[in-house]
Amino acid sequence: MKAIVKAMIANLHAEPHLSAELIDEVLYGMAVHIIDEPDSDWVLVRTAYQYEGYCQKMHLLIDESQVNMWANEAAYVVHQSFADVLHEPRIQSSKITTLVKGSLIRYIPNDDIDKEWAAVQLATGEIGYTRRMWIRHKINDHQLSEKQLREGVVQTALSYIKTPYRWGGKSPLGIDCSGLCSMAYMLNGVYIYRDARIEDGFPIKEISIEQIQRGDLLYFPGHIAMYIGDNKYVHSSLGGNEVSINSLDKQHPDYREDLATTITAVGSLFAQ
């Protein structure tokens, strides 16, 4: 059975109770597959990127036919950190909901409204309005050249700079290391493994550190970062409390010895 997330963010827990470890977040409009229902309030779900966790059922719209229709029609993604969806196309209007970067919505062509606004449909069927500049058509993995994709994932990762660290987080409200890297790739049309290791069955393959280029990934014990060139990398650091940039260069003021000396692997989408 398939379902659509209808909450701004649906938390995935390691166990079916609110005090259990947060392991991931699934954003508005994303589809999940329900694989078990331990009780009337919780379901075990699998995401499109094969991550599993327990989600409160109240955060999901469970209707397989609607999910299939939504998958075809919800072709737009929020790329602003936060986007209000309003009842009317005017700034004074009341709010229906707020969506975070990465949320999926359906765009409705409408020539009768100001070009500043876009008419959108939510997963629940409601029609609302948001700023046109805050949404864009989803990117598919075949649309971008290697150069464009490398630059795209780097710029997307950098757009989360200063976002607070949140274990299991994946939004501008808070994001962890693998959440940052996986969202940077997801927003550019590629699903990678949502954890701090290279996993078989996903597109990131190991390369030597001598081959590293912008957009490739650095792996450390329990941590992951994105290389952005010039010996620098961007990451969401538990030690740094937010998304920041550090260096592999001992002479650089942002050098972190604890990371630079413990690299376990380098991964690339473009491994030969």
Characterise this structure.
The protein is built from four helices and 22 strands. It has helices at residues 64-73, 146-158, 177-186, 257-260, and strands spanning 2-5, 9-13, 22-27, 31-36, 42-47, 52-56, 60-62, 76-78, 82-86, 95-100, 104-108, 117-121, 127-131, 135-137, 170-171, 174-175, 205-207, 217-220, 223-229, 232-237, 242-247, 265-268. The mean pLDDT is 95. β19 (223-229) and β20 form a beta hairpin. α2 (146-158) packs across α3 (177-186). The protein is mostly beta strands and 272 residues long. The strands form six sheets. Strands 17-22-18-19-20-21 form a six-stranded antiparallel sheet. Strands 6-5-4-1-7 form a five-stranded antiparallel sheet. The protein has a five-stranded antiparallel sheet with strand order 13-12-11-8-14, with no helix packed on it. The chain folds into three domains: 2-73, SH3 Domains (SH3 type barrels), CATH 2.30.30.40; 76-137, Roll (SH3 type barrels); 146-268, endopeptidase domain like (from Nostoc punctiforme) (endopeptidase fold (from Nostoc punctiforme), Alpha-Beta Complex). 14% of the residues lie in helices and 37% in strands. Residues 147-267 form the NlpC/P60 domain.
